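Tokens for chain A. Residues wanted.
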């Protein structure tokens, strides 16, 4: 029996401060400003409008000061040259004329995840003991290694031999990784896949991991994390998720040339009945929620687990469906004591492993 799971970790050791409160308007604005500023400074030439926008943002975040405020949600990292100039008796200026004029970038301020939250993340995983785990919103591969050694192995005697994470298109350190008891034979990134607008299709990536199971059985596991609704579920957000669903399914179909066992998993940020992500269910692909043991009272995988919060998936190819033996959701790392009893180490929202719940499935090969 092989157990496969997906879990949005919401980072393991550090997380952008702006992302810690889903309803925090200041945090949402900081994420948008961070993206706008980095988009501007990447241009070969800065227009008058570009410079005016940078000045406007610098007055907000104090990037032009010699000593930037340490609590600024968006911080300027300057390596060489100057982006701003403040005359002694004049107005703030953007002194750089384009990307070649200076070296630097903007980063989101990061803060440490509490030890209790990191411990409880490990406890959720150790409770389920998946053989293969899709990790959503992990910082980087060294972080996965450190988490494996210092939390899973040290605290729970659970030790994964293989773990991988390919940096994606999101600069916030919320990438897609995988940990496995079985060898990862091949991997492929799709960060450079472009949409009709000429921009990257995937918010993070849609990596392919070819994993060799006992008996020399190959399974292709394809993690993904579609465009979120964090800043509102507008038409642009829906169109991005539609494009991501379409391209993800194309990648799944291509993977069938290597093996009949293909699984697309992760946080797709939309519900099965929305119509937005329909493409991932074409050609017979189905989520593990089709199994009779999947909870129907609370089928969701986020917050309180209602149907409108079913956003995490393990989507199987036709042949993989014939191997499905059991499935379930581990919620006890999420703090909702009036709805279910959390772990005894989860005593508040600050202690919880994640707002997401771990979804798992057993396959009998």
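Reply:
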């Amino acid at each position: 029996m092989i157990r496969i799971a997906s879990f949005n970790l919401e980072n393991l050791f550090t997380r952008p401060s702006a992302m810690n409160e889903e309803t925090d308007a200041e945090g949402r604005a900081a994420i948008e400003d961070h993206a706008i500023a980095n988009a501007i400074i990447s241009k070969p030439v800065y227009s008058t409008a570009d410079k005016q926008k940078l000045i406007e943002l610098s007055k907000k975040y104090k990037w032009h000061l010699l000593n930037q405020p340490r609590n600024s949600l968006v911080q300027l990292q300057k390596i060489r040259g100057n982006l701003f100039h403040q005359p002694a008796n004049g107005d703030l200026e953007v002194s750089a004329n384009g990307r070649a004029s200076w070296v630097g970038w903007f980063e989101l301020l990061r803060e440490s995840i509490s030890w209790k939250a990191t411990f409880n993340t490990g406890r959720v995983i150790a409770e389920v003991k998946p053989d293969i785990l899709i990790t959503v919103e992990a910082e980087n591969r060294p972080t996965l290694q450190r988490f494996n050694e210092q939390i899973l192995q040290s605290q729970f005697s659970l030790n994964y031999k293989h773990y991988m994470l390919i940096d994606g298109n999101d600069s916030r350190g919320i990438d897609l990784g995988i940990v496995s008891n079985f060898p990862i034979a091949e991997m492929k990134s799709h960060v450079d896949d472009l949409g009709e607008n000429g921009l990257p299709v995937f918010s993070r990536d849609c990596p392919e991991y070819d994993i060799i199971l006992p008996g020399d059985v190959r399974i292709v596991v394809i993690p993904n994390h579609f465009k979120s609704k964090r800043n509102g579920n507008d038409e642009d957000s829906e169109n991005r998720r539609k494009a991501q669903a379409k391209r993800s399914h194309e990648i799944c179909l291509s993977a069938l040339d290597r093996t009949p066992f293909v699984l697309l998993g992760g946080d797709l940020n939309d519900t099965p009945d929305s119509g937005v992500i329909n493409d991932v269910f074409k050609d017979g692909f189905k989520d593990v929620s089709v199994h009779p043991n999947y909870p129907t009272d609370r089928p969701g995988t986020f917050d309180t687990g209602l149907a409108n919060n079913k956003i995490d998936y393990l989507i199987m190819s036709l042949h993989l469906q014939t191997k499905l033996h059991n499935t379930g959701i581990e919620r006890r790392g999420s703090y909702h004591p009036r709805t279910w009893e959390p772990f005894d180490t989860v005593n508040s929202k600050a202690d919880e492993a994640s707002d997401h719940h771990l979804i798992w499935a057993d396959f009998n090969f």
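The helical segments are 25-41, 48-61, 115-128, 141-156, 235-255, 318-321. The chain has two domains: 2-13+113-363, 25-110.
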